Each structure stands twice: as C-alpha cells, then as structure tokens.
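Entry type: protein chain
Record version: 2
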Amino acid sequence: MSGKARLGNSCAVRVNVTVNVDAAFKIKHMSTTNDPRSAAIAPADKDPRLLEQAEKLRESGQLGRAGHLTRVFDYLVDCSLTERAPKELEIATAALGRDAGFDSSQDAAVRVYMHKLRRKLDEFYAGPGRHEVLRLSLPKGDYRLALVAANPAEPMPEEPADAAEPRAEPLVVSARRRWMGAALAASLGVNALLGGILALRSRERADNELLQLRESRLWAPLLVGDRPVVIVVGDYFLLGETDGSVLVKRLVREFDINSRDDLARRQTQRRPGEADNYLDLDLAYLPTSVASGLREIVPILAVPAKRLRVVAMSQLSTDILGIAHVVYLGLFSGLGKLQSLVFAGSGFAIGETYDELIDAATKKRYASGAGVPRASEPKVHDYGYVSSFAGPSGNRFVVLAGMRDIGLLQATSLVGRLSKLQALEQAGGGAAAFEALYEAHGLSQTLLETTPVLVRPLDAKRIWRNP
C-alpha cells in the first residue's frame, strides 16, 4: 500500500517500497519529438487507466527500490491526475527534498530525474510492458505524465463510461516510435562505422584473400544461411559518482557492476541513503585493441544479404545466444555473460586475476606481463586466445580474447590473416570445437611476434550441459 503526505498546495507525494527485479537490458531511447503521425495524449484527469499503468510500472521493479526516482514518479502521477504540470521548483522541493532556495540553473537534479524516468518508461515498455495497449509518456518540456497508444496506427481505446470527457491535447511520439527512432539512429551509426572499416580494409587486402578466409573452417559456417552474425565487444560500464546533489563529481569503474542490471542489484543491497550515490550515465569504454580487431574481422563477415550487428557486452541480451552466430571480441575481463560458456568446455580456468589462465591438466599458469608496464622493460608479453564451438541451435560461437591489448591484437591477427589462420586450422586437426593459446610479444600497441602454446579440442558436450 502507499502512504500520502500533502505538502501545502503542491501535489501529494506517494512513497512506495519496491525491489528491482529488472530483466535483460533493453535498448535506450533518448529523444522525443513532436510528430503528426504519433498517437495523441489521452486525457489524464481521473482516468483510471493512468493509475493502472502507473501501478504496473511500480510492480515491475523498473524504478528500483524506494528513493528519489520513485518519489518523483509518484509526485508526477498525482499531479497528472489533477491536471497539474508542476514547475522544476515544485518537483525539487516536494519530491527531492530541496529547500525553497533551489536554483535550477545551478542544480540539474530535476532534469536528471526526468531523463532517468523517461528511460525507465522506455525500458519497461520495451520489456515487461511490451504487450500493453496504452503506455505512459513523459513528453519533453512538460512535467506531466500522459497516456499514449502503443501502436499509433490504432485508435486510442475508449475510456470507461464514467470517466471524464476527453479534451484536446498536443501530439507526442509514442514509446514504440521512439524505439524505432533510436534503433534507426543506432543502426545508421553502426553502419557508418562498418562502412568506414570496410573502405579502409578493402584497399589493404586482396579480394582473393578475403574469399579464401570466408571459405575457411572457422568462418564459413557463419556465412551460410540467413542467421544473423552478432559481434559482441567487451566493454566496461562506467558510473557517475555524486555527493548527493546529483552533480557528478567523478567517473567510477566498479569491477562487479557491468550493466544497468548489475547497478540496480547493487543499489537494492546498499544501506538507505547510499542508493543514489551512483548515476547511470550511459557511458562505457572499450580497449583500443577492439577497434583494431573490428578492422580485421568485419570485412570477412560483411557479405551481401548477411545481417551483421555490433553489440556491447553490457547491452547483450542472452536471447541472442540461441539465435545468432556470435563472435566475441575483447579482453577476458570483458567476457561478462559469456565467461561461463567460454570456459565450460575449456581446459583452462581464470586465475586470481583476468591476467592469468591456469591449465587444469598440468596446473601450469600463463600470466600476462602487460598489466604492469615497466619503463625499464618496454617490451611486454601477453597471451591471445581463440576458440570456436557450436551453439544450442546449430549456430556457431567464435571467441577472440586477450589478457591485455597485445594478446587481443594477436588473436584477431591469427584469424584475420590467411596464412596464420591456415596454420591454426592445421594445428587443430580440423576439430569442430577447439581452443588455442598463443604467447604474444609487443611494444606499446604494436604486436611484434607470436609463439604457439597449444591448440586442442574443446569438450563441446560440457558447454551446453548446464547452460
């Protein structure tokens, strides 16, 4: 149940205690614009449908545990039901606990929470609420919630007979249309990146070599049929640390927070008052070797009529693992959701750090020397890893990983250069599931030489025994 407290003439504040049970990460939707093709806002006044949608959002856990975001949402719900569009000062004092001297030009707290709330609405209606006919919307420039049709092509369902008469409202873009706009923008951005990489590599590599690479044992299974190919890059989730004012003081990398879901779980475990210390800024970083790796493998996989996508590990939905061919490109520390699969049938285990592998049979340790650079020894050694195995539905997995950048540069070089790939396949004896470890020596970001350590079959049956 919810308790209310009336603050002067402002709208009521409802406090709900919820536990975040958010599922897989969904695509973020950033913008809302007026569009004559979008659905019209339904009148909010006394409309029980708005209350119903608000309660579904609360029960989904999308808003996280009780905190500032929940209080802002409840405040806006109450204001929307009384046809009020509160100002920033009202929201800051009633829902965020600011005093009457709140200055929106110096404190962006309200705008930050409006942005977070819009994103939570989009994530809810892209996930648990994707089958809802009506959806809540928070148009930019208006701090009042509104109902929109999920499908703009369909008319808004009629209100109950005892509801208030509808009134004319401005047009807004529905959550579905925002998803399409964001997805189109992301697609254009990725296509521009891939197009640039293709243009560069096409000048450096003969067509004949590309054709032979595509016909190799490693790559050919990914290029037949109509399954999409998804390149998963190992990224690292960044957080904004605040002092309680919602102003970011510094960027933070927490090793056990690698996605929004991880952040939500961490916030539910913190003591009261600590949950708001971190902000999701939608920022991540990639190792520089990932860009070089993309330059090597994208031209091989970019063939006509083949769908090719690049997805960050922090945004990976596990549904993809049973549908698409998956190529992982990154460091061992960025494997995230794929780590248990990669090592389930492997003869290696991760050591005390991600800079070390241990051979289960011989107990021999393979440790990178690239993690702690020494001025007296600019040349470093590292390890690169390549594996390939079948997925649960006939799809294929290819893993290209390194302990550090030099190792990843080496791994992608092994599979992106014809002579090296042929030597690797010959050493593997044509096994359908294999893993290979190579020692790499380099200087800064330059790979100098490689030395084979081992190539051996994977125990493919163990990989999907307990997925």
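Comment: Residues 206-234+287-463 form one domain.
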